[in-house]
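Fill in residues.
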């Protein structure tokens, strides 16, 4: 179908449809863009890389560097982290177990939709509860959800503590803080296991890139 813009009524743009026949007579199912078409155009597979780990483990740093590495390889990629979500999408939520569940449900839905558009989505969230992460996985087709365990011991995370959150949690100033007053349930069988206390950011990024290459297909980088 040939579409072009025409300016009307003070510059407002409207579509002029030159289809050669009335739209009501046209089978609209042919207009839907499939995931396969999107992936073929972008030469990649729509997936979610779900980075989970304690606060201070290096999830956001890793997500940003991984996003840059994939972007430089001409991949359609976007990184989501807790700060982005809680400044807008989840600004109405706290840190109770119920609010954490809702936070992960929301970001999981956003990530799933972006992956369905053929994007590589990097999600960097503590996401402490195994059942919440598994629920996101279950909502996606097999092979579309890749769990990345960003593993760093609690004492190392406390030493880093760039925002002073652990210190406040130890002093009782922050309730339900993961690793201190709220549990963290590590992945049992993550697709990728990174040890950020011993490996550099570049080494961790390379580890993920190797995994994507190994699974092949349109996700190859």
């Amino acid at each position: 179908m040939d579409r072009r813009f025409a300016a009307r009524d003070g510059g407002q743009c409207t579509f002029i449809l030159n289809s050669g026949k009335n739209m009501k007579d046209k089978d609209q199912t042919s207009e839907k863009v499939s995931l396969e078409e999107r992936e073929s155009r972008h030469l990649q597979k729509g997936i979610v890389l779900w980075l989970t780990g304690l606060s201070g483990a290096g999830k956001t740093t890793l997500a940003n560097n991984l996003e840059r590495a994939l972007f430089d390889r001409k991949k359609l990629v976007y990184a989501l982290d807790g700060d982005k979500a809680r400044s807008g999408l989840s600004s109405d939520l706290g840190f109770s177990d119920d609010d954490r569940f809702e936070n992960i449900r929301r970001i999981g839905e956003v990530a799933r939709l972006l992956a369905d558009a053929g994007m590589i989505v990097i999600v960097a969230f503590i996401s402490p509860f195994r059942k919440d992460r598994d629920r996101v996985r279950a909502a996606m087709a097999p092979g579309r959800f890749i769990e990345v365990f960003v593993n760093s011991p609690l004492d190392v995370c406390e030493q880093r503590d760039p925002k002073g959150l652990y210190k406040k949690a130890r002093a009782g100033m922050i309730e339900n803080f993961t690793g201190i007053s709220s549990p963290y349930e590590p992945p049992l069988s993550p697709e990728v296991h990174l040890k950020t206390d011993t490996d550099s950011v570049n080494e961790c990024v390379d580890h993920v890139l190797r995994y994507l290459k190994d699974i092949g297909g349109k996700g190859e980088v």
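The chain is about 40% helix and 20% strand.
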